[in-house]
Amino acid sequence: MQVLLHASRDCLIAGDSCSGDETCSPRLRTLRQCVAGNGSMKLGPGARSQCANAISALLSTPLHGCQCRRGMKREKNCLSIYWSLHQSGIHGLNLVENYPYEKIEKGYDFVRLASITADEVGMTTVNRCLDAAKACNVDDVCQRLRTEYVSTCIKSSTKSGLCNRSRCNKALRRFFDRVPPDYTHELLFCPCSDMACSERRRQTIVPSCSYEAEEKPSCLSQMRICKADYVCRSRLAQFQYDCQPDEHSTTGCTQGNYAACLVAYTGLIGSPITPNYMDNSTSNVSPWCSCSASGSLRDQCKEFLDYFTNNACLRNALLTFGNGMDFVATPTQRLQSDPATDRGPQQTTPVFVTTETEPNALSPARPTQDSVKGRLWFDSAESFDTQQNSSQAFAVTSLSVWISVLLGFVLNSGQLIE
């Protein structure tokens, strides 16, 4: 994810270059007034003409076509430069071009992740959810940032008894922006065949702190909050572009790139429209919001919500990842979930049941805060115990070998003396 932008395509560099140019700088200032709240009113009767002229002039500068990188330093500043040019569609000058971030080209390195899990942890891959946690624990960056967001999200204030949601979401964004998807996607999208595993997967982003509330807010209000924030607006634009469904496509996606769709999905985590699994009995996902009070705007609200709950592209991307594949489906390989259960693909390997999951396998009840904390910290503790037990076993085996050698030497010496 930490791919450096080419200097000529970096919006920060392009903005600095424009600000230092006596011809470009005043046009950029004009454009910013055009897109600011009621800014065009300050430009007088000829505002629309001035805005159009400024845009036309800036299209021939490096600002046109510049991009940003998710999680980069000064990301908001970079995005503000991008949207200054691209949100001018509110004046009837629609220049929206996809989204501000570089496009995702690569798929998933399943072989590398399996190698990490098997070689460094010393276990055979039998449960991808548990193996993903172990693989994260042996990677310095993944383990550090995961520990950071978990400790932040489960920590309660001494006064209110509640967690700090803004800090939790900031830590979540750092984790999903800076840790490679080979790790983050295995943690979040690993396939489950029982409710205990599904609940553990649902708790990955600590929903009780990151987004849940007593009542679901309106999806329209959450969408307005999102679009008022440069980062959230950019992540939503990326998601709507890379996960755009197409019923005529063999993949179900307009862009035909499952990896890009899932990267875009994770980019929304930690935002006002954070998506997650809806329960522990299906693989359905949705943001924490409702269209029940949307009134005359219900169709608009439903269209937004359907991007998560009724999106063939996103559903197929999740099912394909759960199958451990990264391919472009043929017409006979169209992925469709079972409408009766929607539990994703059937497991072809035995499920590895631990003492942590077995007692809860048949219980759909929502976990308590203490059990959530236990689940979140279990992986790190188990990984440490596994490594520690391996070391102890090696030490005991080595001692036994040396004792056998020593006894053999003593016995042989006695026979020689006789």
Automatic annotation (TrEMBL):
Record membrane topology: Lipid-anchor; GPI-anchor
GO biological process: cell surface receptor protein tyrosine kinase signaling pathway; nervous system development
Pfam family, one: GDNF
Chief subcellular location: membrane
Matching InterPro entries: GDNF/GAS1, GDNF_alpha, GDNF_rcpt
Cellular component annotations (GO), alphabetically ordered: external side of plasma membrane; receptor complex
Record flagged with keyword Membrane: yes
Residues in GDNF/GAS1 domain copies: 11-90, 129-209, 219-313
SUPFAM superfamilies: GDNF receptor-like
Compartment list: Cell membrane
Keywords: Cell membrane, Glycoprotein, GPI-anchor, Lipoprotein, Membrane, Receptor, Signal
GO molecular function, one term: signaling receptor activity
Family annotation (Gene3D superfamilies): GDNF binding domain
Origin: domain of life: Eukaryota
Family named by the database record: Belongs to the GDNFR family.
Protein's name according to its UniProt entry: GDNF/GAS1 domain-containing protein
